[in-house]
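In the previous chapter we treated chains in isolation. Here, by contrast, the input contains two separate entities that must be folded as one system, with a combined length of 812 residues.
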Amino acid sequence: MAGPVSPLAPASFPTLPPIAGVRLAAAQAGVRYKGRTDVMLAELAEGTSVAGVYTRSATRSAPVLDCQQKTGGAATGRAAFLVNSGNSNAFTGRAGVEAVEALCAAVADVTGIDAGRIFTASTGVIGEKLPHERISAKLGELTGALHEGALEEAARAIMTTDTFPKGATAEIEVGDARVRIAGIAKGSGMIAPDMATMLVYIFTDAKIAQPALQDLLGQLTDRTFNCITVDSDTSTSDTLLCAATGASGVDVEGSAAFADALEAVMLDLAHQVVKDGEGATKFVEVRVTGAENDDDARKVALAIANSPLVKTAVAGEDPNWGRIVMAVGKSGAAADRDKLSIRFGDIVVAENGWVSPDYREELGAEYMRRAELVIGADLGLGQSTATMWTCDLTKRYIEINADYRS
Amino acid sequence: MAGPVSPLAPASFPTLPPIAGVRLAAAQAGVRYKGRTDVMLAELAEGTSVAGVYTRSATRSAPVLDCQQKTGGAATGRAAFLVNSGNSNAFTGRAGVEAVEALCAAVADVTGIDAGRIFTASTGVIGEKLPHERISAKLGELTGALHEGALEEAARAIMTTDTFPKGATAEIEVGDARVRIAGIAKGSGMIAPDMATMLVYIFTDAKIAQPALQDLLGQLTDRTFNCITVDSDTSTSDTLLCAATGASGVDVEGSAAFADALEAVMLDLAHQVVKDGEGATKFVEVRVTGAENDDDARKVALAIANSPLVKTAVAGEDPNWGRIVMAVGKSGAAADRDKLSIRFGDIVVAENGWVSPDYREELGAEYMRRAELVIGADLGLGQSTATMWTCDLTKRYIEINADYRS
């Protein structure tokens, strides 16, 4: 399963600061993979608010259903996140529910945390019984190893087809105090809104009540994880959890600076997921402008970002703008061929219903050789805009998915 | 561009009977390809009704817009179809419209057919000016060569990435008389409803007024060409034309036998398009049952048939039913994990929210080695059903589309 690291990967994992009130650990439970960590535990101190956003799949996994039930309310007691890779515990019937209950009970037993504040997630193959006792057997080791500096270890333990661990951080100053945010994510295939298929854990020492954090997380998800697509397929396990420990003592409710910082962390992680898209060699930003309304803008952006023909053209470094016109046309959004214009970066490719008089194929071909591209489509009809991020579609995607059981 | 013939291709092109009132010819106009035919002309006798169904793309091509304008009405004079491959004359602005007008005028000039009864189509690269004068230059040669037995020649002339020409036929007896139907199609990539991306020409010597033929064609399209998908991308050029010359003297308005025969020809051609899906090695029928309503049934069928993860699993002969569960979940249709069941052919794979107790991986693996597969999903919620046909997603699809300018 281990393939070469994505050419779009960051040079190194970022230095993530410890977040006061958060301790983590990873272990090798042997759920499916051998010779690597596959389970992570995060322990969250008294005073923590937990907010969550989950897949809307009608066949979502047992852990997702359990987390949804536990999300909300005013509780701020200690909490824990327990995540394994290698098996998604999805479509596992009654046994799946029992596995989640057994794991929560075991964590509660070892840590003394209320089972209602224990959030599990599982990622990997669908439809196979989760060997939860292998995970429970590691809880003593995990709790013994908990420490504040283990974010990278945790990021590595939750990887499946990911070729690099994903982390991001931001910091804001409020008066003399400092608020830190650090997040980790996994995700590589089965990535599509809503919401982008992945596991994401964000930790902050900010102080914020659960309802406010939940609202903020939902809004920011729409602008970040719900704006990426790798393959249009939506996971049964998507889980985004944000824990605010309050340990900084800084109340951030209504703080624009905090919202911006949290959005930056989420966007960074979302981009990293696309950059680790299975087989990806190009990172593509699709910018739609001039749509009649927001819904149309998003439809067009998604049609371009998900089009196999656009994505294979990008893979082949072919400035095949005709396929972008095709994708606009099929989107279902209002479009007028003669008002539509297409750009590669700043290069005007097509306008007024035809190729631009100044456009030359060499300009497009040169542009397509970049690792990071911007495809622009202006519909010329209104003021609405949408941005989506995607990657190219290569033979490596086929290799990974024709062979890997996910 | 010429690759190996699809492993799913029929052993040979079928023997198509001449259709009284229809004469065809093909020629090498050098629009884009060298050393092969790339233009076909069909001449339809006095008394012909012409019905058409077209792409719903908002960026449809100039010839499609022209054909739409000409479709309908009570006219039954002589008519002609002129089709070229290699250039789609789509997104070519004013020049595109002028090319269509010039071609229609030229055909009218050479044949004496009213320009309002001349239907053109173009298929191939988007956004490049159609060198229509190369086609006009061949009209003398084409009209001189017109003959009733040229359906296969015509099928070959309209191919683009197709690896085999597509034809189908049916015959019904009405009393002592005989009604014949013969059709040809092209299509391989950019295939998705609505409607399946392709050019299709069906000829019959049946007698039927335009409005009745148009109604019938629309209904049958929903059960045939609108039920296939190769890559979820919708062409700007999709055109299905049916010409009924009336030469048999048999009035088929309201005839169930004729409708069945026409549907059989359309379904045969639709299946051939999927079997020539770019890079296809497997032909997959997706059968959804037990949906709450027709819309949901279709959503689920389409989600499965378009899922890159399902299609790569089929390519890898991996009985990865978890991905089918995923596709059901993402479809947006009402689904209940615990009522859903999944089948490979007659093999019950999953039911009651989990893998079936009788299912063994070897059974699924054995089944997946077939060239033609049936994936069944029963939602267990109602009586609605839908069937879609698709193919697998292989590296060859990427090769074809990363390199070919379509």
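Chain B touches chain A through 69 residues (CB under 8 Å). Residues 317 and 368 of chain B are 5 Å apart (CA to CA). Compare these points with the single-chain example from earlier in the chapter.
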